[in-house]
Amino acid sequence: MAQIASPTVRARRLRRELARLRNRAGLTAEDVARSLDWHRTKVIRIENGHSRLMRKDMQTLFDLYGTSDEERESLTALARQAHQKGWWSAYGDVLPDNYLGFEAEASSISTFESLYVPGLLQTEDYARAIIRAGRDTADDDEVDRRVAARLARKALLVRSAPPALWVVLDEAVVRRLVGGPSVMRGQLARLAEACRLPMVELQVLPFAAGAHAAMGGPFTILDYADAALDPAIVYVDNDTSTMLLEDEKQVLRYRLMFDHLRAKALDPDRSADFLAEVADDYPD
């Protein structure tokens, strides 16, 4: 699987560039709305990604902002890329948000999980058990599609230029019996295998470490190759809502939390030994 130019990341970059051009022109959202006889919320929704940017509106904004021909050409190409479809669009009926689009082009992924194994490292049986447990009213077709999407996502780790993946797992993740002993043995074997991948670092945060900075719940930090064009984001989710955090101070706060977790967790080698010990607790 070759690395792709994610349309989700391109759409975000386009929105950021439009905001930059507006600021360079010395205009507020109210100024733009007044000049173009638009409602103020239209400008805000375009820049926040809550409204689809039509080609005619984009050209109108270019005119107002005094955009150069070179900038117009570059941003028009960016808009074309933003309108393309990623592989995950085929699963739009079962995927709740744009996270996979942001993940697809990340150069590094740092994640803390306190409840279950992260999707990128789940086996099929474990994924099915987790999805079934969380959606007890879902029919078999929905479960199958969710599992298929999760398995397709894992191709990220075997593409020609995979992202660096750093995972910190709370001990509860590997202690909780999901799907039965055989499923857990297979899942723990998958985690041990991941520990041997050159782009993966995996640490276990043992119960003995006590209280820690991320007791509020799991999160993922996504970094990109060019931080100036695509600044890092933090993804926080639970069963009822998801948040994508872009504010620099918020991202820094989560980086500090992740550093704290890494410092308290077992080192990668000791974590691999710990996983082997836990596997012995699930008899054949």
From TrEMBL:
Alphabetized InterPro entries for the sequence: Cro/C1-type_HTH, DUF5753, Lambda_DNA-bd_dom_sf
Q: Pfam families of this UniProt entry?
A: DUF5753, HTH_31
Q: Which domain of life is it from?
A: Bacteria
Stretches that traverse the bilayer: none
Q: The HTH cro/C1-type domain covers which part of the protein?
A: 18-72
Annotated protein name in UniProt: Helix-turn-helix domain-containing protein
Q: What is the lineage of its organism?
A: Bacteria, Bacillati, Actinomycetota, Actinomycetes, Micromonosporales
